[in-house]
Amino acid sequence: TRITESGSQGLVTFELGAIMQISEQLTAGVHLFSPARIAVLEDEFLPTRVSAGLGYQPAPEVLLAVELEQQLDGFFRVKGGVDYQVIDMLSLRIGGATNPALGSFGIGLEIQEKIRDSYH
Hints:
Layout: E1 2-3, E2 7-8, E3 15-21, E4 26-33, E5 39-41, E6 44-45, E7 49-59, E8 62-71, E9 76-87, E10 90-97, E11 102-109
Antiparallel strand pairs: 1-2, 3-4, 4-7, 5-6, 7-8, 8-9, 9-10, 10-11
């Protein structure tokens, strides 16, 4: 962590997560970030966040995702996105979030390198 006015310091925390395949098209996940109370400054702590999400794949090339995120100090956020696989190695992505309102887009490029086994 680096804050210009306060200097910098190293912090250690942990996070936990789990994913469950509900059906061939539906996946659910949960995530817990920094469940321990870790001080950043004297009276300021790393936020503890809990989130849960669903991924729905109506077709092999389309993924719809939604996530609900709750920070224990009262902050609540909803996120969503769509991933469309144009061809095997190229995906187009668009998403949005609330609190604050945010839009995003991206491109996914999957490059696989074949590695030869030189030890026969």
